[in-house]
Structures are given as structure tokens and as C-alpha cells.
Amino acid sequence: MNYESVIHDFAERTRKNLRIIEKLQAKGDEAYEVTQLLNSMLGLLVFPRERFIDRIPQTSLGDLEAGGWPVPQVLGDFPQARDLRELVRYLRNAIAHFNIEFIGEKIQSVKVWNTKNGRTTWKAEIGVEELRAIAERFTDLLLSNGCQ
What residues are paired with 125 via a beta bridge? Predict the structure, then answer.
């Protein structure tokens, strides 16, 4: 089946694939839902951002939280993202460059960070469930925001 609308169809298919892996894992099959979540985030954050950055709203983090979006917990003295567009950039850079540390025996959260010229510029931790919620909400945004 071909893509009719690349970003829209990609976002929909990414969501479906993630749900299938989660169902398999929940049934006890050997499936790696956190790996699939990170693969999904990589695709959802990198592809649309590169072509549709101007369509990602600059909604403040306060407004996002009020709307139910989880926000990564910044570690140390690093700045928090100002808005959704900046948060997408931070997460995109961390995941695309595999600046990720898995936390917990059964992965419960991930630590993500960005660097510039060998220095860390942002570091945060986010629970797997919260990252999953961001994936869902960002997919909803892509599907409803005219990213055709």
C-alpha cells in the first residue's frame, strides 16, 4: 500500500506498528516495546520536523501540561524547553544522536541529553509511559495539523 500523504500516513502507520508491538509484548511474546517506542519517536520527531517545522505550534510548556502533555524533567541547571517546537527539537536531537541512557532493570525511564562542542546543553529524564504519551499526542498533532 503506497503512501498518499507521506507525513500523515507515516504517523498513522507508526502508531499502528507501536500498538502491535505493545500487544505482542503484553501477551508475553518476545517483543521490545521500548525499542519500538524509540524507533517510533525517531521517525515521528525527525521526519516531520525536517519538512514541517513551521507547522509545529509554539505552544508553551505550561499550556501543554494543562492539556495533559507530559514534560520531561530537566536534570541539573539546564534550561527547559520554552514551547512544543523547542521540545521537539531537544527530543529529536537527543534521540537522533542516540544520547540516551536507559533507567531501571525493566526500562522505566530514559535519560536524554544534547551536546554542542563536546558540552552538554540539555539533559532530562522522562518515564517510558510519559514518552509513550508524547508519541501519541505528537502523532495526533501531525494527523490533525495538515502535515500532508
Answer: 73, 111
The cell numbers describing 16, all together, are 499502528
Place of cell 502523532: 139
pLDDT per position as a tens digit, 43-66: 888 876 666 777 788 999 999 999
Report the domain count for the chain. Answer: 1
DSSP-derived letter for residue 126 is: E
Per the domain annotation, does 51 fall within a domain? Answer: yes
Of the candidate ranges 19-23, 48-52, 133-137, the one whose mean pLDDT is the lowest: 48-52
Q: Is residue 1 part of a domain?
A: no
Does some domain include residue 38?
Answer: yes
Residue 99 near residue 142, CB atoms below 8 Å: no
- Its pTM stands at 0.86
Residue of 36, 45, 41, 44 whose CA lies nearest to 18: 36
Q: Which domain holds residue 109?
A: 6-144
Q: Closest Cα to residue 14, out of 35, 44, 34?
A: 44
The sign of the dihedral angle between the CA atoms of 32, 52, 136, 131 is: positive
Q: Which residues pair with 83 in a beta bridge?
A: 60
Is 122 part of any domain? Answer: yes
